[in-house]
Amino acid sequence: MSLQSTMMKAAAIYALKKASENVSEDDVKRWAKQAIDRTPAEWRTTAIDGLDTGLLRAGLMRASQAPNAGTLVMAGIVAGVVVGAGAALLLAPATGPELRKKLAGIFGDVDPTRPENATSTSASAIPSSDLSSSETATIGGTRVSTN
User: Could you tell me the residue ranges of all domains in the chain?
Assistant: First the structure.
């Protein structure tokens, strides 16, 4: 027997002796009665609760508590639908200005030096063939009238 195992046994005996010094005979009788009065279902519940507590402290769980495969598949499908809908909104066919406007609404302002993003646009930037004499147009978020 090694010195280490002898020391561990001596420490265990000392701890049991110290723990039992403060236990009265009435305490032992009360505990024995409680143990006898328990049903097998209560013993099982106590054992399972103790097991669950120990597993949770270790960061584990019993297989019966883990989510089943159907739940995981449904969660994956829902996540895929959400990501797909977001991608469809961003990647739907749109003209350059429409797409930039959409992205600016999502991510904030884009480069203000681009003509599409300017706060005011002169009438000379609007091709005369695009507007009749009484039409209005929106360019870079600014409503422009030919009147």
Answer: 3-65, 76-110, 113-147
Q: How far, in Å, are 56, 121, 130 from residue 146 at the CA level?
A: 72, 12, 11
Burial of 8 (0-12, 13-18, 19+ CB in 10 A): exposed
d(CA 27, CA 32): 9
pLDDT of 59-103, one tens digit each?
887 767 677 788 889 999 999 999 998 887 777 777 768 777 877
Mean pLDDT of 25-32: 81
| d(C-alpha 137, C-alpha 100), whole Å | 18
pLDDT digits (tens, 9 = 90+) for 92-118: 777 768 777 877 777 776 565 666 655
CA distance 3 to 8: 9
pLDDT of 74 reads 92
**CA nearest 102: which of 114, 120, 86, 118?**
86
The b/e string for 112-143 (b: 16+ C-beta within 10 A; e otherwise) is eeeebbeeebeeeeeeeeeeeeeeeeebbeee
